[in-house]
Amino acid sequence: MRYQISGKQIDVGEALASHVKTELGTTIEKYAQRPTDATVTFSRSAHEYLCDTVVHLSTGLTAQAQGRATEIYAAFEQCRERMDKQLRRYKRRLKDHYKDRTEPVAFGTADLYVLASDDDQWEAQGDGQPQPMIIAEMEARVPTLSVGEAVMQMELAGKPLLVFRNEKHGGVNVVYSRDDGNVGWIDPRSLG
């Protein structure tokens, strides 16, 4: 497994990096037999240390956790415990969903634009219609998943929604967290 351990304006020493590799590796191997890489980032917010961890599994799932404490090792331990709890919760679901999968999840790419939120920054186009100003252009990864896998991926990542390509029909779908606590699923195939 590849590790990328870094600090934002913090020097991450060899002792901490070695501790992170050992402890995180042990935690992940209990639940996921084929992790591909882990990114651990330490930062500081006022008097607290923050530890953000993202683990990519060969199945295409991404697990994400965060910890904060007044000491850097304690912040990592809190983050590791959250990752452990998250992976433990999903272990059965991971086995059920991926037992028949012979290859890792395929990812496509899509253009991702960040638009200005202020109405004053909208530009008038040649047709007289105002268009939002594009602040940034990036590329997003779009996985090919079943609906159940997409819901699990969204929950593992702690995101409010996930855009994915439905593996049954190849169309673009969206799952999202609703205000009532349920999960919504948008499948635009019925649009005609």
TrEMBL record:
Pfam family, one: Ribosomal_S30AE
Keyword Cytoplasm: yes
Source organism of the structure: Paracoccus cavernae
Subunit structure: Associates exclusively with 100S ribosomes, which are dimers of 70S ribosomes. Interacts with 100S ribosomes.
CDD domains given in the database record: RaiA
Keywords: Cytoplasm, Translation regulation
HAMAP family (UniProt xref): HPF
Domain Sigma 54 modulation/S30EA ribosomal protein C-terminal: 131-184
Subcellular location: Cytoplasm
PANTHER family to which the protein is assigned, alphabetical: 30S RIBOSOMAL PROTEIN (PTHR33231:SF1)
Descriptive protein name: Ribosome hibernation promoting factor
